[in-house]
């Protein structure tokens, strides 16, 4: 393993990993685009795959979209503590992020992201009943209007179910598996926005 590898330099490794996450959101490609979001459901954990929609490197914020009626939203409204788990299998890099989520529905944050959601993608928020509702048979829960080319005006009906999850990162843990020596590091974000890191036994 070369000494110039990013995982041999504490601060550089965090920047490197954060840049990879940012790139996945921007290019809409690669395994880092679909992390696992964990929430607390009463006394249990609850996990699901989500799509990473946006990243602010300056504010250490990650953006996800969901249906405001989904279970995860109810869970986050009770307990905003949450985690995101990323695995980049080509680079053998695991990224664990702990943070807090604020839910935005029908406000200026939701509004600004909604404008960029194409009409054809708005069906994700358009089921007649809440996600997770029991059906009599197989189905996607959508009304007939969504099966054809829906106009931007008609697609506006889904806005009321559209939620933006703003995930503020507080702690990041990195793990790189390598035959010549694994590397693990943890970083905590201070109130002033600085990151303090340390190496850990993998
Ligand atoms: C590849 C993939 C991407 C997904 N992306 C999202 C997403 O961006 N937002 C979302 O709410 N659900 C997404 N889902 C569905 C969730 O995994 C989950 O099934 C759904 O949101 C209901 O979760 P909940 O009942 O815990 O709220 C995705 C599923 C897969 C397989």
Question: What does this protein look like?
Answer:
The chain is an alpha+beta fold. Helix content is 18%, strand content 36%. It contains four helices and nine strands, in the order αββββαββααβββ. Strands 1, 2, 3, 4, 5, 6, 7, 8 and 9 form a nine-stranded antiparallel sheet that branches. The longest helix is centred in the N-terminal third of the chain and has 18 residues. The two termini are 16 Å apart. Bound molecules: flavin mononucleotide. The site of flavin mononucleotide has 15 residues, from β2, β4 and α2.
Helical fraction equals 10-25%
Domains, number? 1
> What is the fold-level CATH name, i.e. the topology?
Pnp Oxidase, Chain A
- Oligomer description: single chain
CATH class designation: Mainly Beta
Q: Please mark out the parts with pLDDT under 50 across 5 or more consecutive residues, or reply none.
A: none
* N-C termini distance: 16 Å
Second CATH tier, the architecture:
Roll
Estimated radius of gyration: 19 Å
Number of strands: 9
User: What form results from the Cα inertia axes?
Assistant: elongated
Spell out which ligands are present: flavin mononucleotide
């Amino acid at each position: 393993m070369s000494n110039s590898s990013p995982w041999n330099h504490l601060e550089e490794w965090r920047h490197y990993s954060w840049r990879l996450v940012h790139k996945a959101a921007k290019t809409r490609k690669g395994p880092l685009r679909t992390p696992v979001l964990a929430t607390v459901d009463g006394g249990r954990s609850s996990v699901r795959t989500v799509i990473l929609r946006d990243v602010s490197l300056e504010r250490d914020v990650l953006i996800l979209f969901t249906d405001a009626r989904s279970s995860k939203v109810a869970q986050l409204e009770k307990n905003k503590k949450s985690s995101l788990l990323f695995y980049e299998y080509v680079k053998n890099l695991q990224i664990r992020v702990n943070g807090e989520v604020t839910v935005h529905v029908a406000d200026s944050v939701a509004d600004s992201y909604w404008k960029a959601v194409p009409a054809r993608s708005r069906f994700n928020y358009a089921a007649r009943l809440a996600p997770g509702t029991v059906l009599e048979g197989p189905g996607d829960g959508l009304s007939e209007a969504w099966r054809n080319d829906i106009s931007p005006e008609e697609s506006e009906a889904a806005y009321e179910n559209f939620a933006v999850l703003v995930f503020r990162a507080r702690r990041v843990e990195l793990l790189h598996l390598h035959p010549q020596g694994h590397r693990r590091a943890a970083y905590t974000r201070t109130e002033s926005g600085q990151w303090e890191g340390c190496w850990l036994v993998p």
